[in-house]
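Reviewer 2 asked us to include a model.

Predict the structure of this chain.
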Amino acid sequence: MSRSTMSSTPPAPKTRRRRPAGEVVLGVDTHRDAQVAAVLSVMGTVLATDEFPATAAGYCDLLKWARKSGAVRRAGVEETGSYGASSSRYLLAQGIDVFDVNRMDRADRRRRGKSDPLDAQNAARAVLSGRARARAKAGDGPVQIARMYEITKVSAVKARTQAINQIKSVLITADPALREELAALGNAELFRACARFADVSSREEDGEESVLQATRITLGLLAHRIGQLSEQVRDVDVRLARFVKCHAPQLLDVVGVGPDTAVALLITVGDKPERLDSEASTLIGAVTRDGH
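Predicted model (structure tokens):
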């Protein structure tokens, strides 16, 4: 073969590195500031482990890294209701089936030793074995709105009850004359009377305080706190009622179901749809599908 013929032969094309085609399963051990991930083959072989920051960029990098090992269609994530909520939401938005994985039993963890990579691997294995069946909630639908308001209401009611009990406790040891002055009042009148103590104390001149003055001020401040918390509860109730009318008005047509019951039902269905029978699921309709 002549030299000219050899020189005219085109060079062989460079072969591109092909992306792995096999399916892999992702496991994530979640923490406040970082998340440890593991990628396993469908046969359970550990292909890779790494750590990523618990940030928007970190979640993106985590998935890009995992996809270098294969096609990611399923993921097991620990604590999808707390530290794993944001990463679960991101993975769900990318079309990945995300399963909520319970942390290893504490006794088992002490026996084996703490290992974030091992926890991430176990999260993936829980998906492979079928042990992890609960689907992670996206936390971006209508039901999440109800959850947020319910958190506010529950904490406000709890704090208000505590303040009421504290007023009753203060009155037990209060000056007898003050105690007798307030003894015959119902709760609403009692709180209004106590609130006036704080209003009067704000106009008092500086000087040495007596126990009676401190008692009146304490009762007044507690009463004002009760009023503020009651206003918060009323505001949230209005918002929850508006939410139900907007997203599931058919629930209010059921005898005995008011806004509070409707919200509780919607939150329950959002968490565990299998707990309710088909009739209740029909009542809730589209909001169940949108609110996981």
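The two ends are 71 Å apart (CA to CA). The first strand starts at residue 23 and ends at 30. We have added this to the supplementary material.
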